[in-house]
Amino acid sequence: MTTTAELLKTRTVGVCLLGHGIVGSGVVKILTQQREMLRQRTGLNFQIRHVIVRDPTRHSTLAGQLREATISVDATAAIDDPQTQVVLELMGGTTTAADCIQRALKLGKPVITANKSLLSTRGAELFALAKTYKTCIGFEASCGGGVPIVQSLIKGLAANRIDALVGIVNGTCNFILTQMTRLGWTYDAALAEAQKAGFAEADPALDVSGRDAAQKLALLASLAFNVRLGDGEISTEGIDRLQQTDIALAGEMGYVIKLLAIAERAGGSGDSADYLIARVHPTLVHKDDVLAEVGGSFNAISVFGHALGHALFYGRGAGQMPTASAVVSDLIGVALGSTLIEFSNLRIFPDTSPAARLLPFEQLQSRYYLRLSAKDEPGVLAQIALALGQHGISLSAIHQHETDQGQLVPVVITTHLANEGAMQAALRQINALSSIAPPAVLIRIIDQPREFAR
Amino acid sequence: MTTTAELLKTRTVGVCLLGHGIVGSGVVKILTQQREMLRQRTGLNFQIRHVIVRDPTRHSTLAGQLREATISVDATAAIDDPQTQVVLELMGGTTTAADCIQRALKLGKPVITANKSLLSTRGAELFALAKTYKTCIGFEASCGGGVPIVQSLIKGLAANRIDALVGIVNGTCNFILTQMTRLGWTYDAALAEAQKAGFAEADPALDVSGRDAAQKLALLASLAFNVRLGDGEISTEGIDRLQQTDIALAGEMGYVIKLLAIAERAGGSGDSADYLIARVHPTLVHKDDVLAEVGGSFNAISVFGHALGHALFYGRGAGQMPTASAVVSDLIGVALGSTLIEFSNLRIFPDTSPAARLLPFEQLQSRYYLRLSAKDEPGVLAQIALALGQHGISLSAIHQHETDQGQLVPVVITTHLANEGAMQAALRQINALSSIAPPAVLIRIIDQPREFAR
Question: Which long-range contacts (CB under 8 A, 24 or more apart) does A128-135 make?
Fold first, then answer.
């Protein structure tokens, strides 16, 4: 449907691709296979000029496919080439990647990156550098894969004072938890399956420790709350010590266990409303909560805004094509110039935001799930209840299961809202009881607003 | 945290508000109560210069609240005022509203509107006019309330060839259906409750007939598929004849009934891939489908993209503050200039798109739910099965319930994929059977991709 006149107006945009791994090759796919669709939609003709790889001899197919591109190891020359107008940093890591991004920005060339590790630690510095050189950084692909959550926080929800952000932001962990929940698998079996299916790295530590989720939360919360927040400031607990027992017991009580990344205003009025609590940990979620339905490698991010109320963004949080979809979305905004306008003018990026005022994690108010292994002897429940009561914690439910597994009986307790510090103190006291076989298992419970009828 | 230097850079943007109804007063709330937050985030100081109402004497409180604004009936003068830089059309209707929008555009002033009725019929003309005068139209609020679905289709998902769009886009209908499903209410009782709760107009026809959903689908599909599509071209069936019986029977079979707006590629390869099918009708959705969980006045829009896969956008689809949230989001983009860039350059709006090539509704391939009232006599099921078989329709399940309600027995049939035209022909044949008390109830079933484990 493109007319000749329109074709004449097509503008070519030279792209330099740093890295040709999973995401990089997805970007190549979209830019080559959807070239005509993109040209019709945007009036832009994206031309890959450079692909930087470790070993060009291993990419002969790519060279045949991209006749106008140079496949090389020389990132510097590729970035400096006047025909490079946009740099896509998809190599990962935090050293060479940072050098390359800085080099591009200093030439005034916009950068698009999916590098959450880098941005969550050095984002403020890189954003400031981009502004100094009157250019911009696109990072939609760094959080939530193909889900346009970054763009939504930057603009779509900009009229809202955000009160909370609650997300499933790590597809690997969600895949593992889904297998454990729906198929009754152990953590080790589910992890092995995730690795086999390509959802987990050979070294899964970054994912299963919760650190990847914390990095994404740092970025998303900085946009939502207009603060500077490093992932190191986020209280983080992974899924690597989760036991099948707890998933099964939680299920009996109507809960599903999810790894949630949560940032919320600490509540209260006046000064305390400016404080945030930010945390990543396994969490009991009601089965009728929409987050409980998010299975496999999908991500979902709930945002609570003062005007919008509850909104949720759901989709593939990782993987080649979803992430490449986000990169190309950024590429369009950067090439058109709309991204630069928003990046330069909005004061919501970490470089212009004040440091987050975080409430210490001990001051969290939460409900808790507590599983104890108690000796089957008189008075144990009374001792536990006493320890909790002494710290001002009141119980919501107790389940003591019958067992023929010897002298240890599993006792599951859920609490009403309690203080994290008090809970930890009670837990130390309980673990020290001679009638308890430590360690007790403590998992937080989240109650999201019910929205059934209205 | 705003420094003096930053404050000095703040730019004032004069806003003219046409209409001070539900949404208009929500916009006033955000612009006044969140003025400081918006200024910090955007560097913009939105100043409401004019509010156009039917009877200014009834808005004395507003006049006190907005000291720098003129409250009047004179839209023309307000639009023409050099201090008006952006016009918000929130009066609704398609005559005066269109005149006002045209007047503003001809002055080169950007317009923001929530008016889906107007845009779904005259969008192409108005968009073209905006381009002639080098300005733009923001219409995030016209679909999905506060959910940034328009922005996501324009930019976030722009790298995707969209294959299908499936949405719950009318909060009134979803509220009524939720009450009927969860509380067992009749349609009339649920409608009365919706009216009482402010979710339905005194004249609910636009909503319950499915026409409002068709207007939104026309807009969303035009962006998703880059075609020009009027709501009159969309096959539309409302919820006003839905019976509690069918909701209950569907529930027994594991389905929930939702009013869905669906636009999808007609499938197949070659030429047929360019055809769309667009339709709005009550639909049986599996209980484990995420759309089944969307309750009350919430909206949810599923988008299936070739790169992204399945993504879903969920939130308040109507109501004062959610819609106002979308209006103010547009206001920010328009005032910064990023909206103009995307509006002018992207060729995805109805004015630059070719007319949609729609497959006739009779060529739809769907599964069906069919409820018949059959006389309790021998051979009836055989006659029904014969009628269906003669039209090439194969059955998936049959449920015949026992009854003590006299001679008529409810028979529920679900089919495998069948052709709509064949189904209608079979239905005519069945309705003509002497053993059947017409009319039979026919509801379409949707099977969305299962995404459980991965």
Answer: A128/A351, A129/A102, A129/A105, A130/A105, A130/A343, A131/A343, A131/A344, A131/A351, A133/A105, A133/A106, A133/A107, A133/A108, A134/A108, A134/A340, A134/A344, A135/A105, A135/A108, A135/A109, A135/A110, A135/A111, A135/A340
